[in-house]
Design brief:
Elements: H1 2-31, E1 40-49, E2 56-65, H2 66-74, E3 81-84, E4 87-90, H3 104-110, H4 116-130, H5 145-151, H6 155-167, E5 173-178, E6 183-189, E7 204-206, E8 209-214, E9 234-237, E10 250-253, H7 267-274, H8 290-295, H9 313-319, H10 345-374, E11 394-396, E12 401-404, E13 409-411
Antiparallel strand pairs: 1-2, 2-10, 3-4, 5-6, 5-9, 6-8, 7-8, 11-12, 12-13
Helix pairs in contact: 4-6, 5-6
Length: 415
């Protein structure tokens, strides 16, 4: 009975722990964030920073969530400009929704030097690149910024998008309406007049502040420039609004449009194709740019000595040798020790001359040694000298005496 009771308690404990684990698992799973997979509409646009010789262009990939686009396209589109017997009522600000453009304004600013004029012109070039879609804005309702990012637009659509991007960057803006020309653009307040325009700078004064025109419908216009036809405008202050929180638009710079080190290779190509550094124009420090190594000299951009001859590629190019051959002139001399690495004949003639000279000298020495052996006295060295002339005496075995070759006299000495 005790054993059975013990078993029952153990069973109950297991059941209880199982139920507790199930409850905790269910509770924790309900706290986990749900990852929503959603479709996006992708567009690629470009923008420019700087001016003239210092101008740089960047591509930005914009992803617009389909559900966000659908929300704005199905939202109410009130008339943006209404005319009453020659007077106008403006409603363009109803379309200015800074939250709807995501991180695009911040991305554009991050590639500028931060000045008001450069930022205003960079954002303007982005909107201009989206493109003007022909239409009559008095008939077709104005588009929200998200719609314009997908479809393009006419002057009021593009102006609303530009105003939205600039409001997200805290610029003070006005809308400029030119009823006679059926046109709309944006006025941008800056602390000082634009300095880099190609045309005469124009502005409108509103509430004691100067606003410089930003023409969005065609490329090339800078803030402060405007056609001579557009000088009499009706002004409407830009007042941005908020919409419900939606999945944001997301922008990302295309790394294949960047060239951080200015070597002529995009950052994307350097990272993903060539293995070179996007931050150094000469990755291997051999005095040749990465671009020249890949497309001009066909050397290895990540190896300073492509042919392993002990000379840097840049040094070989400077001195006329082949950075892809350790023996440029095929004379069996490595370029690093060859006195004339681009001349096959001269160094080898020098070698031949040197070897020939050594050979002649060897023959001469051998002959000198042979002559001395032939002129030497007989193998028996004299131990006595002639008492008359002092010459060495030679022992003559036949006569059993010593002979002086000079005096031709014979002497008897012990052997």
């Amino acid at each position: 009975m005790r054993k059975l009771r013990h078993f029952s308690r153990k069973k109950v404990s297991i059941i209880f722990l199982s139920l507790l684990f199930f409850e905790l698992s269910f509770f924790n799973s309900s706290l986990q964030p749900t990852v929503h997979a959603y479709e996006t509409i992708t567009r690629r646009y470009s923008f420019e920073t700087g001016w003239h010789l210092y101008e740089k262009s960047y591509d930005i990939i914009v992803e617009i969530p389909t559900q966000t686009y659908d929300y704005y396209s199905s939202a109410s589109h009130p008339w943006s400009i209404i005319e009453y017997d020659g007077s106008y009522e403006f409603h363009l600000s109803k379309y200015v929704v800074p939250d709807s453009v995501g991180n695009i304004p911040q991305i554009i600013v991050s590639y500028t030097n931060g000045g008001e004029e450069e930022i205003a012109d960079a954002v303007l070039s982005f909107v201009q690149d989206i493109g003007y879609v022909a239409g009559d804005y008095q008939v077709d309702n104005t588009l929200y910024p998200v719609e314009t990012l997908v479809l393009g637009g006419v002057c009021d659509d593009l102006s609303v998008l530009y105003a939205t991007l600039m409001c997200a960057l805290d610029f003070d803006l006005i809308f400029l309406h030119f009823p006679d020309e059926n046109h709309v653009c944006v006025g941008v307040h800056m602390s000082s007049a634009p300095q880099h325009t190609d045309l005469e700078v124009y502005y409108w004064t509103y509430k004691g502040q100067r606003y410089y025109p930003a023409e969005t419908t065609s490329e090339g216009w800078l803030v402060g420039e405007i056609s001579e036809d557009f000088k009499h405008a009706h002004i409407d202050e830009v007042k941005p609004r908020s919409f419900p929180s939606l999945t944001p638009v997301y922008g990302e710079i295309d790394e294949y449009s960047l060239d951080f080190d200015g070597d002529g290779l995009s950052d994307g190509a350097e990272r993903n194709t060539y293995g070179t550094s996007p931050y150094k124009a000469d990755t291997d420090n051999d005095s040749l740019s990465d671009y020249d190594e890949i497309f001009v000299y066909y050397t290895n951009p990540i190896k300073s000595d492509s042919d392993d001859d002990g000379l840097w590629d840049g040094s070989e190019i400077a001195h006329g040798t082949d950075p892809l051959s350790s023996d440029t002139d095929d004379d069996l001399w490595n370029d690093s020790i060859d006195p004339m690495p681009t001349n096959f004949i001269v160094p080898n003639l020098v070698i031949i001359a040197i070897l020939g000279g050594i050979g002649v000298l060897g023959v001469f020495v051998r002959r000198r040694k042979r002559t001395r052996i032939e002129m030497a006295s007989p193998s028996v060295s004299p131990i006595y000298y002639c008492p008359t002339c002092g010459s060495g005496l030679t022992y003559v075995e036949q006569n059993q005496c010593w002979y002086c070759p000079n005096c031709k006299n014979y002497f008897v000495f012990p052997k």
